[in-house]
Amino acid sequence: MGLYERRQREKESIRANILQAAFGLAKTEGWASLSMRKIADAIEYSAPVVYDYFENKEAILYEISLNGFHSLHIELLKAQRKFDTPEEQLIAIVDAYWNFAFKNKEYYQLMFGLGMQCSGKGQMKEEFSSFQDLIYECTYNIIKKNGSNPDNACHMSHALFSAVHGLISIMMMRNTDIPSTMNKTTLDETVSAFVKSL
């Protein structure tokens, strides 16, 4: 391996360590307490080294949120591919989204700015709208199959996204006084009623 390749590999390693340390700190202390100094201390480098790789904390949060959206996108596609009918696909996609949110709370909170400022404002990537795109596709296909007006697919799928995201947000922000089974039951009933309404 040449000198250039070695330096590139070292740079990639340090960059990965910064992201890993930031995520680890967020899991133990919360996103709000994250700072460039704490990240530098965690990887045993000086703060200027961290700034060599990321302009500021926001840039680190944005990069981590991209990892979250990418992981979510993969889970949603896996769920969709398990079923053939758009009704089954829609239910599976919503379930996968719900499960991702609660198995990856730190990612989800960062991705959607729950209890904090949303990272990457104005910097959209394809994966950001993955869930909305997939439920739109299923909604459109169900509507078309039922002979209803396909012009309603955009509005209807947006309403479903809002309901699902709203339930997750309530659950995450008020988890002490709302039973998880109640929210999941509400989610299942909402999706079932949604499919019937199409």
From TrEMBL:
<dbReference type="InterPro" id="IPR050624">
    <property type="entry name" value="HTH-type_Tx_Regulator"/>
</dbReference>
<dbReference type="InterPro" id="IPR001647">
    <property type="entry name" value="HTH_TetR"/>
</dbReference>
<feature type="DNA-binding region" description="H-T-H motif">
    <location>
        <begin position="35"/>
        <end position="54"/>
    </location>
</feature>
<feature type="domain" description="HTH tetR-type">
    <location>
        <begin position="12"/>
        <end position="72"/>
    </location>
</feature>
<dbReference type="Pfam" id="PF13305">
    <property type="entry name" value="TetR_C_33"/>
</dbReference>
<keyword id="KW-0804">Transcription</keyword>
<dbReference type="InterPro" id="IPR009057">
    <property type="entry name" value="Homeodomain-like_sf"/>
</dbReference>
<keyword id="KW-0238">DNA-binding</keyword>
<dbReference type="InterPro" id="IPR036271">
    <property type="entry name" value="Tet_transcr_reg_TetR-rel_C_sf"/>
</dbReference>
<dbReference type="InterPro" id="IPR025996">
    <property type="entry name" value="MT1864/Rv1816-like_C"/>
</dbReference>
<dbReference type="Pfam" id="PF00440">
    <property type="entry name" value="TetR_N"/>
</dbReference>
<keyword id="KW-0805">Transcription regulation</keyword>
<protein>
    <submittedName>
        <fullName>AcrR family transcriptional regulator</fullName>
    </submittedName>
</protein>
